[in-house]
Design a protein that fits this description.
Length: about 290
């Protein structure tokens, strides 16, 4: 182990002594020299490892080049000209010719893909529509800013809920409500009626659903939660006075049925019916001995 002894006690020691003489500062013995020796050793190891990695990378790259075999491009006879990849290559090389050829051959699906690769979303929407890809067509039209048209196409694709969401995004809540009601989504339509400021119409649907024994408890609970959220977010005064008492009673009755007593009491307090809130608290209070 003389090599280690020479490296640590002679080679590194000489480096430290020369450095001390050069800067005019002596390290505190005995620990400081050992720390410096350790740092120098670590730097040497890191440098050696970096050199090793570079040499190995160079050797491997030379070996790879030496063993590489030139790849022959496929002949035109072996290429599937209908593949999406080839269509994109052709469209990049000669977009006009490719588009005209696909239109002539009525290959609208592939034409749509070419338009997408060119980021022509409106044209892509048209092509996918011609191909019968309605959802894809709606997506591309929406990207092109044709939101209302995209919503109409989604309706044709039997996706009224997605269609209504698109319409709401451009402020057409009334149209969304009409379309949903037409397709039998009355409960969902009610909240779009509310957003369109047709509050009477919305509340009538809410009361109808909450009081209908044929409607499942799960549906009633979902509707109840949404209505309560509206009340808490916008205040009880957002409910027209002529419907307020009837609607709040229906909501409270449903909450009591589900044993959500705390929320029922809080809703009564929120809407200013403190007397009913106190009565409910008294009913729920444990009997006195």
């Amino acid at each position: 182990m003389w090599v280690i002894d020479w490296y640590w006690n002679k080679f590194l020691e000489q480096i430290i002594v020369k450095a001390e003489n050069l800067i005019g500062y002596e390290l505190i013995r005995p620990w400081a020299p050992h720390i410096v020796k350790g740092i120098i050793t670590l730097l040497i190891l890191l440098l050696s490892y970096e050199i090793y990695l570079r040499i190995r990378k160079f050797i491997r790259s030379r070996k790879f080049i030496a063993e590489s075999i030139p790849v022959e491009p496929p002949s035109s006879e072996t290429v599937d000209k209908s593949s999406e990849f080839i269509q994109q290559l052709e469209s990049l090389k000669a977009p006009k010719q490719t588009i005209e050829r696909l239109k002539k051959e009525k290959k609208f699906q592939q034409l749509g893909e070419v338009y997408v690769s060119m980021q022509k979303h409106k044209e892509a929407g048209w092509a996918f529509y011609k191909a019968g890809e309605l959802k894809r067509s709606a997506t591309e039209y929406a990207k092109a800013g044709k939101t209302y048209l995209a919503a109409k196409i989604l309706l044709q694709a039997d996706e009224p809920l997605q269609s209504a969401t698109l319409l709401a995004s451009i402020g057409k809540h009334k149209t969304a409500a009409k379309w949903l009601e037409k397709y039998g989504f009355k409960e969902e339509a009610s909240f779009y009626w509310w957003e369109a400021n047709y509050k009477d119409k919305a509340i009538k649907i809410w009361l109808e659903v909450l009081q209908d024994p044929k409607v499942s408890m799960e549906q009633k609970t979902q509707m109840c939660n949404k209505i309560i959220q509206i009340i808490y977010n916008h205040g009880p005064n957002t409910i027209p006075d002529k419907f307020k008492k009837q609607l709040i009673n229906s909501l409270v009755n449903h909450l009591i049925f589900e044993k959500r007593f705390s929320l029922a009491i809080d809703l009564l307090v929120k809407t200013g019916d403190l007397a009913s809130a106190e009565k409910l608290k008294a009913l729920l209070a444990p009997p006195k001995n």
